[in-house]
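=== Per-residue structure ===
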Amino acid sequence: MEVHRPAAGRLCYMIARMTGARRIFELGSGFGYSTLWFARAVAENGGGEVYHTVWDEALSREAQGYIERAGLSHIVRFRVSEATAALRDLPGPFDLIFNDIDKHGYPASLPLIKERLRQGGVLIVDNMLWSGRIFDAQQQDRNTEGIREATRMLFEDRDWSASLLPVRDGLVLALRR
């Protein structure tokens, strides 16, 4: 486990608690670390649901075990699927959406996120500093360019109020106006 991961997890928990989030969707959930933080917040907010979405069946099983051991299985809905397809299949609105898909997919995911996130809802996007590669003009791979474009889109769209937080590998926190 990375040394800075707890700081990002606690921040996600705090944002979910402060906003009273009861319906959260994770685009790209991995082994369930952020899912656990969100599920704790939702439980403390009076209950609801957190959608854990990942392509890999083994990762999903690992996350299920992790969430079961924490006693939060009643909060989490597990989906093995491409994340944006899973979000497209579910009706909104969501109170909070966490985006951690392949970075080149960030720009294309934003219109769907905006459609599914309630007004006043919160978007958290992970890895927005990309280990500093976003600042290096020589870095022009599709993931780095995807992060740059998504950042530009969020900061220029009047429907979002966004801020870049230098926690872990950078989180963008955006309020849907």
About this structure: The first strand starts at residue 23 and ends at 27. Residues 115 and 164 are 22 Å apart (CA to CA). The radius of gyration is 15 Å. The helical segments are 5-18, 33-44, 57-69, 83-89, 106-116, 142-156.
